[in-house]
Write a structure and sequence with these properties.
mainly alpha; about 260 residues; single chain
């Protein structure tokens, strides 16, 4: 539950700060920045992640610097503001030129670059990048799920519905094995979009319904009304799910 995660990560940051454990504090700040974004607090999340980058640079721990920069890039690339996703693109391009970067981090960086390419409207290149990223994230199911979601959407833009369907089968299999965490709603929406694109209206609505159920479960865990509103309105996939529910309410033919 994103709200519970937010509370726990705030406590972790405070605890590590209290005992002067800067390395673990940087890691906790990364988790906090991500948790803030997941609940729709984008500006605060960005501020926290930039402070994590600064802390990691100050303590001169290479892995902490890499981890913090990657989390910052992951947040920035989701922004509709060109300057922010371009900054993310620059960050990961530098990381990809680093020797010794693990397969998982290389896949993460390629996924972020995939999103930047999609912002640029370069969907052919985005598909190529996503294919490379998913191979690197084979042992990281949540990250692989995220990459597959990006790949599905890029393929649908290009009209490559057969491959999109195959990727969605893999997404569905992964979701049957674990809940999907922060990417679950987006993954279920990608499946719904694929079904609608090929004219499978009932299947599209069923996948959308599953996504809406997950959103409702998470909203129920948020005690604060203002926080519930932010979660529904400022988390892109949550807003998209509600928009699709309205758009598809009377659909009898495939949406574009």
């Amino acid at each position: 539950a994103p709200y519970r995660l937010l509370q726990l990560t705030r406590r972790a940051v405070d605890a590590f700060q209290a005992i002067l454990d800067a390395r673990n504090q940087a890691t906790a700040l990364n988790r906090l920045g991500q948790a803030l974004a997941e609940i729709g607090e984008w500006d605060e999340g960005e501020h926290v992640l930039r402070s994590a980058v600064q802390l990691a640079q100050r303590i001169r721990v290479p892995f902490a610097e890499l981890q913090s920069a990657m989390h910052l890039a992951a947040l920035l690339v989701t922004s509709p503001e060109t300057a922010k996703w371009e900054e993310a693109e620059t960050l990961v391009s530098g990381m990809l030129s680093t020797t010794g970067l693990s397969a998982g981090y290389r896949g993460w960086a390629l996924g972020i670059r995939t999103q930047a390419l999609m912002h640029r409207g370069k969907f052919v290149e985005a598909v190529e990048e996503a294919r490379a990223a998913r191979a690197l994230c084979e042992r990281l199911p949540a990250r692989r799920l995220w990459i597959d979601t990006l790949l599905t959407r890029a393929l649908l833009v290009l009209g490559q519905t057969d491959e999109a369907r195959a990727v969605c089968r893999e997404i569905d299999q992964m979701l049957s094995l674990f809940q999907g965490g922060y990417i679950e709603v987006n993954a279920r929406l990608a499946i719904a979009e694929m079904h609608m694109r090929v004219g499978e209206i009932a299947e599209a609505r069923a996948s959308l319904h599953e996504a809406l159920l997950r959103i409702d479960e998470r909203v129920a865990d948020i005690p604060d009304e203002a926080a519930r509103h932010r979660y529904l309105e400022y988390v892109p996939e949550n807003k998209l799910a509600r928009e699709l529910a309205t758009k598809w309410a009377g659909s009898s033919s495939a949406a574009t």
